[in-house]
Design goal:
The chain is an all-alpha fold and 119 residues long. It is 66% helix and 0% strand. The chain is elongated, with a radius of gyration of 18 Å.
Length: 119
């Protein structure tokens, strides 16, 4: 199944590794993928769009925008807590909306709470 996710060089790398190590758990494969393909250039390609993506209530739909920002942060910082994710994302709203989200959320607020505030 994992073979369907890869193309070209990654496909050959996966087949070679599978032949060498046999059947492994998803956790093992995830570690191998991160070790092989994660680098500063990839981090930059994910970090840059996060920094440039500012929420615009007229143009952006709140749920897809929020989920995309959360996915970007999770890819950059896999160990970041939900609370910190929910603190960083409103900074991309700016101005009064950022302030409204911060004032109406607590440490226990969920993603749903933040999305409701954005609406």
């Amino acid at each position: 199944m994992l073979l369907l996710c890869f193309e070209s060089q990654a496909d050959r790398w996966y087949i070679k590794l599978r032949q060498a190590h046999g059947h492994q758990s998803w956790t093992w494969w995830k570690t191998q993928i991160i070790n092989k393909w994660s680098n500063d250039a990839l981090r930059f390609r994910v970090e840059t769009p996060f920094g440039y993506s500012k929420f615009n209530a007229d143009k952006d739909k709140d749920l897809p925008w929020f989920c995309q920002q959360k996915d970007r942060l999770t890819a950059l910082y896999p160990d970041m807590s939900e609370f910190m994710l929910h603190r960083k994302i409103p900074r991309q709203c700016g101005g009064d909306l950022e302030n409204a989200v911060k004032l109406r959320t607590t440490e226990k607020s969920s993603a749903e709470d933040i999305i409701n505030i954005l609406e």
